[in-house]
């Protein structure tokens, strides 16, 4: 329904990863770099044997990062936890470029999934209690419209 779509967009625009973790529970948030004043998500990026930390904009839907590696469009970076080295990639394959996506785990059991291909805009958000939030907003919105 079109009503549902606009609500989803509104929610997504303001969502930020505030407490992202690796699969083993290490924090992926860093004070070393900020986007819009907020802590960046950090991961170890590697590509063709080169490695560096990558800082990712924590706001959902922003495809912005900072990395010392010279990355170009189409490069696929391998992302791991800077603390334990666990791979952040998941079984879900990006529908746009066919490589495994990576995930940042959220404290409520949800996760933010994104494509590790530079230039790919694929991003997905799975928040366990998002349905509840949307249901609440939908009720509010319906009231306003009526
Ligand atoms: Zn870890
Ligand atoms: Zn992709």
What do you see in this structure?
This protein has 146 residues and is an alpha+beta fold. The protein has one domain (15-128). 20% of the residues lie in helices and 34% in strands. It is built from two helices and nine strands. The strands form two sheets. Strands 1, 2, 3, 4 and 5 form a five-stranded antiparallel β-sheet that branches. The chain has a four-stranded antiparallel β-sheet with strand order 6-7-8-9, with no helix packed on it. It starts with a helix and ends with a helix. The mean pLDDT is 82.
Portion of residues in helices?
10-25%
Q: Beta fraction of the residues?
A: 25-35%
Q: What ligands are attached or bound here?
A: zinc ion
Gap from first CA to last CA = 17 Å
Structural class: alpha+beta
Largest sheet: 5 strands, antiparallel
Query: Mean pLDDT, as a whole number?
Result: 82
Shape: globular
Q: Give start-end ranges of low-pLDDT stretches.
A: none
Number of strands: 9
| Rg computed from alpha carbons, rounded to a whole number of angstroms | 16 Å
Compressed to H and E, one letter per element, the order equals: HEEEEEEEEEH
**Total helix count?**
2
Domain count: 1
What is shown here, in short?
The chain is of the alpha+beta class and 146 residues long.
Annotate the secondary structure layout.
Blueprint: H1 2-14, E1 29-35, E2 38-47, E3 50-56, E4 65-67, E5 78-80, E6 89-93, E7 100-105, E8 111-114, E9 123-126, H2 130-145
Quickly list its features.
146 residues; alpha+beta; five-stranded antiparallel β-sheet; four-stranded antiparallel β-sheet; 2 helices; 20% helix; globular; binds zinc ion
């Amino acid at each position: 329904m079109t009503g549902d779509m606009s609500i989803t967009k509104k929610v997504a625009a303001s969502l930020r990863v505030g407490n992202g973790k690796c699969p083993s529970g290490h924090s992926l948030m860093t004070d070393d770099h900020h986007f819009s004043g907020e802590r960046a998500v950090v991961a170890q990026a590697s590509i063709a044997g080169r490695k560096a930390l990558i800082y990712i904009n924590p706001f959902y839907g922003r495809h912005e990062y900072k990395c010392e590696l010279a990355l170009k469009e189409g490069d696929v970076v391998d992302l791991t936890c800077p603390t334990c080295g666990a791979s952040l990639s998941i079984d879900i394959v990006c529908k746009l470029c066919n490589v495994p996506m990576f995930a940042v785990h959220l404290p409520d059991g949800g996760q933010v999934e994104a494509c590790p291909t530079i230039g790919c805009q694929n991003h997905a958000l799975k928040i366990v209690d998002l349905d509840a939030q949307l249901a609440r907003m939908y009720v509010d919105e319906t009231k306003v419209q009526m």
